[in-house]
Amino acid sequence: MSQKKITEFEKYTNELKEIVSPSHVTTDPYEIEAATGDLSILPKYHYKFKEEHIATHIVRPNNTDQFSAVMKLCKDYMLPVTVRAAGTSCYSASTPTKGGVVIDVRRMNKVLEIDSEKMTVKCQAGISWLKLIQALRAKGLAPKCYPTSYKSSCLSGFVVTSGAAGIGQIKFGSIYDALNAVTLVKPDGSVSRIQKNSGGEITLADITGSFGIFGGISEVELNVTTLKTSMELVGYGFHTMEQASEFYRLLKSNSIDKPFYLSLSDKKFEGFSHVTIPSRPFFVYAVFYDDPEVTAKALAFSKESADKLGGLEIDKWYLEEKWRDVADVELNLGRLCNNPIFQEYWISDEKLEAFYEEYAPKVKDDKYRNAMYIMGGSNGKSRIKLFGLSDIEKSLEFFGIKANLHKMAQWSYKNGEGIYSCGVVNTFYYHLFNQEKVQHMQKLNNSVDPDDRVNSYRIIKTKMRLWRIKLLFIVAQTLFRWA
C-alpha cells in the first residue's frame, strides 16, 4: 500500500473517531468479518474471500446527528457504505459489495417517546423488536406487527424490507400500514423526515422494500395497539394440501377475528423443527389474540371449519411449544446440515395449491431433504419458504437444490406472483421479471445517490450475471439427476 493511501486511511479513521467515540470505530479484521455478513451463506462461499468486498471500517453511531456526520464524511471521501442492523436477513441484505464502511445502527436503540393517547411510539431505528415490545408492554401497548425473528432482529431491517408477513400482519396490516414516519439519513448526509402525507420525491412506500438503497433510517414513528387480554392457539392436521389450504384461507378471511399469526406447514418441516410431529402430512396453526369473547368465537369458527374438512385437532401442549419457539424454528433447521438452502416466495392465497402442485414433484424426483412452511401475510398474500437441507461440499446436490428453488421463482413470476425477500442474492429476479419497479427505484436512486455508494447491488443493479446463473442451474440439476 502506498504512503498516500496509508495517510488517507489514517486521516479518515481519525476523523471518524472525532464524530463517534474511538471505542465504536474499528478496523480490526476479525470484528469486520463478524459484522459484514448475515444469515445467508453467500459471504461464506463468495464475497468473504474477495478482498474488494471486505469492509475497512465498522462504525457504530449513537444518534441521528452522528449517523448524518458519518454518512457525510463517507461522501467526502467517496467511500462505499453498507448500513446494517442485526443482520438477520438471509439474502445478503447487509453484506458489503464494494468494501468501504459498514454503519452498524444497533447502538441507536432508544425509545424516544410513547404517546398512549395518540397510540404512537417514536424510537431509534436500531432498537431490537424485543426491547420495543417490552417497553410498550409496560404502558399497556404493543406493536401492530413484527417479524417472527423478533428476539434478535431490529426495527429498521423490517422497515426497509416489505414487512408484509410475520406476526400481526393479517390482523393489523403490514409494517407500511403501521408506519407514521421515518427519519432518513441520505447518502450525502442530509436528513429528511418522511411521513405518509409528505408528498416528497421519496415516499414511505418507496422506503419499505428499498433494502436501504436511499440511505439509512435513524428514527421511526409507529402506530401501536393496546395489549389484549386473551390469547388462544389452535392447530389441525389434514390429509391433503387442498384441505389444509382451504382451512387456512377460511381462518384468514374470517371477519369475526383474523389470526394474529397463521401458518401452514408440511410434516417434514414440523419434524425438523420440533421433537414430536403431527400425524398427518399437513398442519395449520393459528394464534388468536383479542378480548375473550372475540377469541372464543374464533375458536368455535375454527373447530366448525376444521370438522367440515376432516381436520384432526392437535394437542394443546404442542401448540404452546410452537408459539414459544416461533422465533427459533427456522434456525433449528440449520442444526441438520452445514448450509440450509432456502427461498421465499410471495404468493396469493388462492394459488397455494397450484404452487404446491408445481413444487411437490420436483422434490419427489430429486430425493433431497426438504421442508416447506407458509406464513400468513397482508393483502391476500402469503410467504412460502422452501428449504433444502444440504452441504455446500456436496456441490451437485447443493446446486441441484438451488436449481429447483430457481424454477419455483420462475413459476411464481410467470403466474403473476414473485419472491418475498431480496438483498444481493435475489436482485436478479427483479431485473428478469420486474423492470417497472427497477426503473422506478433507479430513477429515485440516481437523484439521492448518483455515485451508487450506499447499499449497492440491491434492486437497481445486480452483481450476478443472469446468463451465468441460468447456465449454472441447468448444468447442476442435470448432473445432480444423473449422479
3D structure, described in words:
With 483 residues, the chain is α+β, with helices and mostly antiparallel strands. The protein has three domains: 3-104, Uridine Diphospho-n-acetylenolpyruvylglucosamine Reductase, domain 2, CATH 3.30.43; 111-226, 2-Layer Sandwich (Uridine Diphospho-n-acetylenolpyruvylglucosamine Reductase, domain 3), CATH 3.30.465; 230-418, 3-Layer(aba) Sandwich (Vanillyl-alcohol Oxidase, Chain A, domain 3), CATH 3.40.462. The protein has 19 helices and 18 strands. The protein has helices at residues 3-19, 29-34, 42-45, 64-76, 129-137, 155-160, 169-172, 175-178, 204-207, 241-253, 267-273, 292-308, 316-324, 329-332, 352-366, 395-414, 423-433, 435-448, 466-482, and strands at 25-26, 57-59, 81-84, 101-104, 111-115, 120-124, 141-143, 179-185, 191-195, 216-226, 230-238, 261-266, 282-290, 312-313, 339-348, 370-376, 381-390, 418-419. The strands form three sheets. The chain has an eight-stranded antiparallel beta sheet with strand order 14-11-13-12-16-17-15-18, with helices on both faces. Helix 1 (3-19) packs antiparallel against helix 4 (64-76) and helix 16 (395-414) crosses helix 19 (466-482). The longest helix is centred in the C-terminal third of the chain and has 20 residues, at 395-414. It is globular. Residues 45-49 have low confidence and may be disordered.
